[in-house]
From TrEMBL:
Protein name per its UniProtKB record: Trace amine-associated receptor 13c-like
Record-linked Pfam families: 7tm_1 (PF00001)
UniProt-listed SUPFAM superfamilies: Family A G protein-coupled receptor-like
Domain G-protein coupled receptors family 1 profile per the UniProt entry, residue ranges: 46-299
Organism: Stegastes partitus (bicolor damselfish)
InterPro entries according to UniProt: GPCR_Rhodpsn, GPCR_Rhodpsn_7TM, TAAR
Membrane topology, record value: Multi-pass membrane protein
Single GO MF annotation: trace-amine receptor activity
């Protein structure tokens, strides 16, 4: 029978080098397990519905929806990563040092890909609202696929390079057995902070401020039946109400994303090195994860096509022949 001291260790057989478990009251632990399990399950299910909807129905194969598909894929992976957060509730990592590094690399790649997708969404709405006559020729499905692919590949390559020291010698920064930690040194952390946060967020804010200004002026023009002109004097097509609604919906997605994202990156500014297993980061990490659950809920609130596609999916009507050609929008 284990002694009390052995029960508090991650690896009782390694008494002199094992980390100690995070001890909580049983009721608190159960509540945390239930909440995180529900978040993980709902995040995966709801984002899978988005992925199936956009992938299956041909009418939804638009450049904007391809960007939403990329975001849903990253959000679905986030839901799966929450499972590891559940397993880490006792403060112990049981899956090996290399797996720990790969876990953090995967987490970083997903985060960067999500931010990159948000930048692409901002650019998409900027072109659609500010240059509507050129949107169809510039924002093609092929270009969108290339941009999304480059976004994911750059995110993977960048963070493999940033965390290469941790990959070469997994566990070099662990102080005891059962600890999962990777360290970004000052230069690498600064580069990552600029590429993953400062730069993208600046682009997003600038573009959406411009979109907001133009959308407001276009909405006023539609209400007063005034024809809008470009600076060059040529007639500019009035922005469709659907484009304005899409800009509003995606604006909500971006604002919620930034609210959930900013605390994490702001916390990284507090030290010279970015230590990722600090208990003080638990709340902001969970806040970022929770954002992945909110996105499909926002789609369900603002997009009728998403609600309709969910109905067809859960009733198994998508299994019928020719269901991919159904009128969703």
């Amino acid at each position: 029978m284990k002694t009390l001291e052995e029960a508090e260790l991650c690896f009782p057989q390694l008494r002199n080098s094992s980390c100690r478990k995070t001890m909580r009251p049983y009721s608190v632990s159960m509540i945390l397990y239930i909440i995180l399990s529900c978040i993980s399950l709902l995040t995966v299910i709801l984002n899978l519905l988005v992925i199936i909807s956009i992938s299956h129905f041909k009418q939804l194969h638009t450049p904007t929806n391809l960007l939403l598909l990329s975001l849903a894929v990253s959000d679905c992976f986030v839901g799966l990563l929450v499972v590891f957060q559940i397993l880490l509730l006792d403060g112990c990592w049981y899956f090996g040092e290399l797996t720990c590094v790969l876990y953090y690399i995967f987490d970083y790649v997903i985060t960067s890909a999500s931010i990159g997708t948000m930048v692409l969404i901002s650019i998409d709405r900027f072109v659609a609202i500010c240059y509507p006559l050129h949107y169809l020729s510039k924002a093609t499905q092929q270009r969108t696929k290339i941009c999304v692919s480059l976004c994911w590949m750059c995110a993977a390559l960048c963070h493999c390079l940033i965390l290469k020291d941790n990959l070469k010698q997994p566990g070099r920064y662990s102080s005891c057995a059962g600890e999962c930690v990777v360290v970004l040194h000052h230069v690498a952390g600064s580069v990552d902070l600029f590429l993953s946060f400062v730069g993208p967020v600046t682009v997003i804010v600038v573009l959406y401020v411009r979109v907001f200004v133009v959308a407001v002026s276009q909405a006023r023009a539609m209400r007063s039946d005034v024809t809008a002109f470009t600076l060059q004097g040529s007639v500019n097509a009035t922005v469709k109400k659907s484009e304005l609604k899409a800009a509003t919906t995606l604006g909500v997605v971006i604002v919620v994303f930034l609210i959930c994202l900013c605390p994490y990156f702001c916390a990284t500014l507090t030290g010279q090195d970015v230590l990722l297993n600090s208990s003080s980061m638990a709340f902001v990490i969970c806040l970022f994860y929770f954002n992945s659950l909110l996105n499909p809920l926002i789609y369900g609130l603002f997009y009728p096509w998403f609600r309709k596609s969910i109905k067809l999916i859960i009733t198994f009507q998508i299994l019928r022949s020719g269901s991919c050609d159904a009128q969703i929008m």
